[in-house]
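Working notes for the structural subgroup meeting. M.R. asked for a predicted model of this chain before we commit to crystallization trials. I am recording the input and output together here so anyone reviewing the notebook later can reproduce the run.

Input as submitted:
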Amino acid sequence: MSQKSQVMVVDDDLAMCGFLRTFLGARNYNALTVTNADEAVRRFHAERPAAVLLDVVMPGSMDGLAALAAFKKIDKDVPIIVISGQGRTSVVVQAMRLGATDFLCKPFEENELEMVIEKALKQHQLSQEVASLRAQLKEQSRYTMLFGHSRQMQEVRDLIERVSDTDVTVLIRGESGVGKELVARALHDQSLRKDKPFVKVNCAALPTELLESELFGFEKGAFTGAIQHKPGKFEFANHGTMFLDEIGDMSFPLQAKLLQALQDGEFSRLGGKSDVRVDVRVITATNCDLEAAVASGRFREDLYFRLNVVTITIPPLRDRREEIPMLTEHFVKKYSVQYNKPFPGISHELSALFLEYEWPGNVRQLENLIKRMVVLGSEAPIVQELKNPSCTSAPRATAPPLQPVMPPPAAAAVAIAPASLAATAPAMVGAGAMMAGAPAAIGIGSVAAVAAPAGASAAVNVSLKDIARTAAREAERELILRMLTRTRWNRKEAAEILGISYKALLYKIKENGLDKAS
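Returned structure, recorded in token form:
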């Protein structure tokens, strides 16, 4: 063995401890001997040995079997060989149930002990290698939908590799369902903070008051019901990464507090008198036009420049159709295993439909369709759905083009051309900014456009953007109501179909006054 493995010996017999220390040392093991179970648990927690030789009968408040259970709570994979003069079947069975790797009765042969130790360590090493490979495969699977082979996604990957090991703020842009959170996680996982927390907060899921307390925490008595102080997400993310999704939906007053936290690395909790210092890398994401929000006064310009140090824009799925077959195969395999429902693969007809479809809900919509197909065990409903003209003509939103890595530092740094209203308004009217692609994914057709208020075209103070926002809200309300009706007001099922969190749906129901309709 090239490196000594540490083996802990737990036995109250000093002579046995001395024998095993000599025995292990002669075979290139580093022996750690302990004579009582309580001390053994403390040393095990600190030393983390590669294996344990454990006697059953021990003095003190804890016997060998209790120590075995404690070891397994600390490290469930460590090999533990029980050695005892008590060879009763009940003791052996109990030890094996608690997770013992093997059991030897005293007295034992030296070659027998040597074989048992070698076997246990080899099995442990093999299981660790398998676990590592599984973790790598899982990680690869996790990013399959992100790192495709198209030129556009290669550019995204290059940007991630170039900025992941820095602490600069990153703004991720792209339509709903393209995988913005995956990019954020990839940035974290490839950074020096990868072993620290990754904390996600959806700024659109909570009203301003709740979002502030969620981000920054509150002190006892800060408001009615604050019976004790609560740290915020920024504190939980200390030394790690904070991912603020849908940053464009954050209220204007709260933007000022976020700006202070970014600039100074400190903030005060709600009701607090002192500042809290944190070391957090902030990554944000949005599918809205931040430049237009800045121009209209809905988003702080100074915060925009603070967040937009590096921009990564993820192209929609319709602009990288060559990746659809690969993604389809990946999701079929994934959900066949997850639901234990073998699926033979999709037909040429469905493959062609997938390549022709516009995918307003992007990769998330494709994944949900395939998940449903695997669970149902048939592609017929999906084929019928995609052949439906109202489905295949679903509205499409336009994402801003991929931008240079580093925008210029001055006011001219707004290098990202805002998407034209003519391109974005139809998508907002057709499906709402929150749920792009949801109607197609569930087979109800596209949501009808909402007409502008009467006389709006002649009103001087009514802008097209106001009309588009009103239309989007109405379309969103109609879509949520349809889903709730379809699921008989099963909110969890409706949230899953719409591709949003249960908490976000509850907020949207209340915001749109649908709680009264139930």
